[in-house]
Structures are given as structure tokens and as C-alpha cells.
Amino acid sequence: MNISPDIQNEHQIFLQGPVVVFKWKNAPNWPVEYVSANVFENLGYTAKEFLSSKVEYASIVCPEDLQRVADEVSIYSSTMKNDFEQEYRIVKKNGEVIWIYDYTSILRGESGNITHFYGYILDITKHKRNEEALRKTEKLNTVGEMAAGVAHEIRNPLTTIKGFLAMIKKHPYKEMYMTIIESELNRIEQIINEFLILSKPHYKQYTNKDIRFLLKEILPLFETQAITKNIQLCMEFDSQDLMVHCNEGELKQVFINTLKNAVEAMTYGGVIKIHCFKESNHVSIKFIDEGDGIPEESINRLGEPFFSTKESGTGLGLMVSFKIIDEHQGSYTIKSQLGKGSVFEYRLPLCT
To answer: Could you give the CA distance from residue 257 to residue 23 in angstroms, rounded to a whole number?
Structure first.
């Protein structure tokens, strides 16, 4: 049979595209009886690996999603529907985990029993990431509006209180106490101003600072609490200057929040290590604790508004911290093991 050039071209374009076609047998682990040749370009596996049953389709479905996928297939198969759609994660041969859209048709035998599934899968990882980014942005906007409203409500009475304090200070015997109160009120106002970071961008003064000195300046804030909880704070810093173009107050806020979380996670005492070293054209700052650890499913949600692994937490602390690191053209990674502890790493560009 002669095949027209147009059909041949269409077939060639399809094989170079992102859609991979499968035909699965209705049997345990879904053995593959057919797969399009572009499977290697998209997933890293060869067609031969699937067709020889060296790799079964169930083995590449992300373990966390496999039971859900199997349950959905079972539910769809029990109805009279001839096709269905799913979204789940699979693991490519190189270990990369991607999200896919799966459109499957059900093939039945003469007696109506299901013999095969025939369908295609499409990588939708980028789409999923965009959805996640949009969801976080919407939450961030909500928190920003809330932050602006709360901050302005509190700043008004603060102004009145500070005015009265100025009058009370005329009494010498009360001046020392009023100075302390005023200092504390200034601190409250500073915290509120930092909270306003969430509401809108504003002018910030950036200077070149040695990151080692910023870390050394915040450690005394935790010495008493560390002693009380039987925690040892250990610092390991590079011997050379680690100059970063930054807003000093904001980076201190990030380090204070991270160290505070580490101390709170150390239920039974232990060691918290702070490492600060040059790596290529960046400085790496690591906070390593021996706390309770963070569940794997929760790590990717850290930094979301209103999500926290602590009972009384709001999630705002890490969200603000990550926002500050982003604004400093930096990056962050989190690694954790339950029962062993966590590592929070921040990477910031060094001054050129």
C-alpha cells in the first residue's frame, strides 16, 4: 500500500514531538505491547526495554502516585466509559520526576472484558509549575493586603503612644524606664516595617557586607536559649572575606528566623552547625540542625503562606525569608530526614 508523502510527513513530525503513545495489556504492572519510537527522546527508555518487559509501565510511575493511579484505573474500568484522563508523576530513566497528562482508551474483547488500554502521555511539568507559581502568587497577594492593613492599624496608636512618652520623659525620675519602653516600641515598629515587606516593594539601602560578621552578630541572641535547651552552637567560616551586596537588616532577619527554627526543632538538645564558605562566585551559608526533621511531603510546601510544620506557626517567617533571598539574587535548598535533622542552605552572589 502506497502511503502519501503528507501522511509520511505527519507521522515523522509526530515521532519528533512530545506525545508518546502506549498500548498496555490489562495485567498486573501493565506490560507494554506497543510504544511509539519517540519514547527514548521523551523518557530515556528504549522501546525495546518496554516491549521485552524489562521495564513495565507500573515501574516508572512515581511510587507516591502508583496506588492512586491503579485505583482510578479500576474505577474507570468498572464503568461503561471507553476513555478516561489522568494526571500523575513518572520517573524518567535519568531519575528526573515529571508530571504527565494521560489520555487512555479502553479496549474490550467480544465478551466485554477489558483486554488492553491504548493511549498517549504528554509531559505537563512546566504547566504544573506555572499553576503552582500562580497559586503561591495569589496567596502572597492576599497576605500582602493583610500585612498592609494590620501594619497601618498598629502604627497609628504607636504614634500616639510615642507622643505621650515624649511628654512623660519630662519627669526625670521616670526617664530611664521611659527610655526602655521607647526602645521596645521602636523594636515593635521595626518588626511591623519588616512585615510590610509583604505588601509592596519599597526603597532599600544595599551596601557591601562581610556575611561572616552578620552571622556573628546574631549568635548572641540565641546563646541563653541554646544553653537552656542544651544546644551547642558551632560556627565554621571561611578565612577569606565573603563580601555580599545586601540589605544588612533583611539578611539578618533571614538568619535569625532560620536559626530560631533550628533551635525550636531541637527537642532533645544537640548541635547546630553554621557553615559559611565560598563556592565559585557565591557564598554558601548552611544551618545544620539535629532536630526532629521535616516530612518529605512538607518540604516543597515550606514558604507557602499559612503552611507550617509547627502547631502555632503561620508560615510567614520562611515566606518572608525566601522572598528576601530571591530579591538578593540568591537561592535556597532544604534537605531533611525525619529523626536526624535538617539542612537549610542559602547561596548568595559574592561582590565582583
So the answer is: 52
